[in-house]
Design goal:
Layout: H1 2-5, H2 10-21, H3 29-33, H4 37-56, E1 64-66, E2 70-72, E3 78-80, E4 88-92, E5 95-102, E6 119-120, E7 130-136, E8 143-151, E9 158-159, E10 162-163, H5 167-179, E11 181-184, E12 189-192, E13 194-201, H6 207-211, H7 214-222, E14 224-228, H8 234-249, H9 252-264, E15 272-278, H10 285-290, E16 295-297, E17 313-318, E18 322-323, E19 325-336, H11 337-341, H12 348-351, E20 353-364, E21 382-386
Parallel strand pairs: 8-13, 13-14, 15-17
Antiparallel strand pairs: 1-4, 2-3, 4-5, 5-7, 6-11, 7-8, 9-10, 11-12, 15-21, 16-20, 17-18, 17-19, 19-20
Length: 399
C-alpha cells in the first residue's frame, strides 16, 4: 500500500494495522484510536494526490519539498500536521509549479482564514481536506489556480451499478468554492480564487459507467463533482490522474474562459473596469476613436496584480487624449503577436502569446475625452479600478 511506502506515514499505516487487529478491545490505547479510520482515508487521499501531481509534472524526488510531519494530538494520538505543516511544494529548476496542503484551516480564534497565505474566508470557517494550487506563468507571472478536494469515507448507495458519493458532501463543495476568496494584499481587496471542488470517496464501479455518472459529468459542467478512489483500483484512479494532468497542462486562458461566468456571480458585477493604453500606431486605434472596436490585446506580459476573473468592463486610454468610452469584456483569450498585429512577420515577438479581450461597445462615460493621472498606471499601460473610483484617476479641467 502507498501508506507503507510514503515517508513519514509508515507509522500511521502500522497504527492502522494495530487498530484492525485490536478492534474488539473495549478500553486502552487502541480503543482511543478507532475513531481515526476516516482520517486515515483523508491522509491516504492526500498522499495519492501528491503522487499523482508529482507524476504528471514529471518531477524527481529532489524537485519535491515536503514540510509534512506527524504531530501529537492529545494522549497516544498522532495526526498529520495541518496547513503549513503539511505543505508540499513542487518545483523544477527553481520555478514553483504546484503546492499541496492538507486540511489547511488555521487554529486562530477568529477562524477567518484557511491556513494558506493568500486564501481567506470572510464569513464562517471552511476546512477542505486537500487544497491544490497550480502556478501558471503563460498569462500572468505567478498566477495561482486553486482546486479543493474533500475525502469522504462514505457512500450513498448505488446508481446503475456505480457507488454514489454523499450528496451533502457535494453540496459542501459548492459552499467551499463560494466562500473561499483570494486576498490581494497590494489592492487590499478580496477576489474569487477557487476554480472547482471535488469529492474523493471509496466508491466502486466500472470506469466506463463512472465516466457517464452524474457526479462525474458535473465536473465538466460546473467544476463540482466526485472521483472514486480506493487502494488497488487502478482503473478508476486513472480518471483522477487524467483530470489532474488536464489541470496542469491546460493554458490559463482556457481555464479563465470557462471560469469567468461561474465567478461572475460572486464578484461586484458591473463595477470593475480595466483601463488600457491604446497608442496611435495600434492597428485598432481608429476603431477605438470611433467607438467600434471589438478587440483589445496586451503586450507579452500582463500584470500579476490584476485579477482577470474580476474584470467586466474595459475603457481605452487614448494616448495624448484620455478616456471616454466603456466596453463590456465579452471573452478573454490569447492570440499570437502575429494575429494581434495582422502582420506576416515570423520573429519571436510575432510568435509570443498576448492576452486578448473581445469587446462589445456599451456607452460613453464622458462626452469628451478626459485625461487621466498616468502615474496610477501599472507598467505605464493599465489601471485596474471601479466605476466608483474612476474620478480618482481622471484629471478634471478646472478652467
Amino acid at each position: 500500500m502507498v501508506l507503507q511506502k510514503a515517508t513519514g506515514y509508515s507509522q500511521v499505516y502500522r497504527t492502522w494495522n494495530l487498530l484492525r487487529r485490536a478492534y474488539s478491545l473495549n478500553d486502552g490505547l487502541y480503543r482511543l484510536q478507532t475513531k481515526d479510520i476516516a482520517t486515515l482515508y483523508e491522509i491516504w487521499c492526500f498522499i495519492e494526490v501528491s503522487h499523482i501531481v508529482k507524476a504528471q509534472l514529471n518531477l524527481d524526488d529532489e524537485d519535491v519539498e515536503h514540510r509534512n510531519r506527524m504531530e501529537m494530538n492529545g494522549i497516544f494520538s498522532w495526526e498529520l500536521g495541518k496547513g503549513e505543516h503539511s505543505r508540499i511544494l513542487f518545483r523544477k529548476d527553481g520555478v514553483e509549479l504546484a503546492e499541496l496542503v492538507y486540511n489547511p484551516k488555521n487554529a486562530d480564534k477568529e477562524n477567518d482564514n484557511v491556513g494558506m497565505k493568500d486564501l481567506v474566508v470572510p464569513t464562517v470557517p471552511q476546512k477542505p481536506d486537500i487544497v491544490l494550487q497550480l502556478t501558471k506563468n503563460d498569462l500572468q507571472q505567478g498566477m495561482k489556480m486553486t482546486y479543493l478536494f474533500d475525502a469522504k469515507y462514505r457512500i450513498d448507495g448505488k446508481d446503475k451499478g456505480v457507488d454514489v458519493p454523499p450528496e451533502d458532501a457535494i453540496n459542501q463543495m459548492h459552499r467551499y468554492r463560494d466562500a473561499i476568496y483570494y486576498k490581494d494584499y497590494d489592492a487590499n481587496a478580496l477576489k474569487k480564487e477557487v476554480i472547482g471542488g471535488y469529492i474523493l470517496f471509496p466508491g466502486d464501479g466500472e470506469p466506463n459507467d463512472v465516466a457517464v455518472s452524474k457526479f462525474y459529468k458535473t465536473i465538466k459542467e460546473v467544476n463540482i463533482g466526485a472521483f472514486p478512489l480506493r487502494p488497488k483500483d487502478v482503473e478508476n484512479r486513472k480518471l483522477l490522474e487524467n483530470f489532474i494532468d488536464e489541470l496542469i497542462h491546460t493554458k490559463s486562458y482556457e481555464t479563465i474562459t470557462h471560469v469567468i461566468p461561474q465567478k461572475g456571480a460572486y464578484v461586484e458585477v458591473g463595477n470593475r473596469v480595466l483601463i488600457g493604453l491604446v497608442k496611435e500606431d495600434n492597428r485598432l486605434f481608429q476603431a477605438f476613436m470611433d467607438g467600434t472596436a471589438t478587440l483589445y490585446y496586451s503586450g507579452k506580459q500582463f500584470p500579476t496584480t490584476i485579477a482577470l476573473q474580476d474584470l467586466h468592463f474595459f475603457m481605452p486610454y487614448i494616448k495624448g487624449k484620455g478616456i471616454r468610452d466603456v466596453y463590456e469584456i465579452v471573452k478573454v483569450r490569447t492570440i499570437t503577436g502575429k494575429e494581434a498585429k495582422q502582420t506576416d512577420e515570423d520573429d519571436a515577438d510575432s510568435k509570443a502569446l498576448r492576452l486578448a479581450f473581445e469587446l462589445r461597445y456599451v456607452r460613453k462615460q464622458y462626452a469628451e475625452f478626459q485625461p487621466i493621472d498616468t502615474t496610477k498606471m501599472i507598467v505605464h499601460t493599465f489601471v485596474d479600478t471601479t466605476f466608483d473610483k474612476l474620478e480618482e484617476c481622471v484629471i478634471i479641467d478646472k478652467l
